[in-house]
Amino acid sequence: MRRLAALVFISLIAAVGTIGIAPTAHAIPSCVNAGDVTALGSAGCNLGSLNFTDFAVSPVGMAAKIYLGAFSAVVGNNVNLSFQVAHSPSPATLSDIIFMYTVKTLSGLPELGGVDLYNGGLNVTIKETVCATKLVGGVCPSGALADYVVEGGKIGQATFSPLLSTIYINKDIQFGYGGFISEFMNSHDEPPVATPEPTTLLLLGGSLVAAGLAARRRAARPVTGGA
Fold first, then answer.
1. What's the pLDDT tens digit per position in 16-32?
2. Does residue 8 fall inside a structural domain?
3. Using CA atoms, how far apart are residues 131 and 57, in angstroms rounded to an integer?
4. CATH code: domain of residue 121
């Protein structure tokens, strides 16, 4: 009996030893104040009912970094991301920042139906392209859902149908002579509304302007890298 008990005890120890402890899953961070977008990794960040991932920043003729700021928020049906930009030289002339990311619904259901863009730059235009499939060489193989240009201080907007669960966004931030940008904002809408709501971005854009000194201090950070 003692020998049997000892064998059972040893078997239990061996069984416990073979049971692996599953690693704790890391929570996906909020997009609010998430910092350098390229440091978020493949998981990206969440805000509202959306996940934002696969951030890529490719400066041309300059060095640049893009950060997710404190004014990111969910307002009504709009999930707004507030982006802060640091670029060198500042101001810059005849340079570009190519900025790409992916938007997915957390539910996996088709709920995305529109985008809005506020450009807070000076002598800077932003060309935004929205695709239903991954871009190849900056081009939508399936045709663009939206393709528009927004000048500094203005808002661009687009809706599309049918609703989608994933969209791919590409921005070409183009600097003219003496161009400067410290912030811009994107709204990702679900579901679409009959009448777009640019007022939301204008109000948030006003908040960005109010925080301009802080944004410009961030823009003054040393930036390394770039083409």
1. 344 444 444 568 999 99
2. no
3. 18
4. 2.60.120
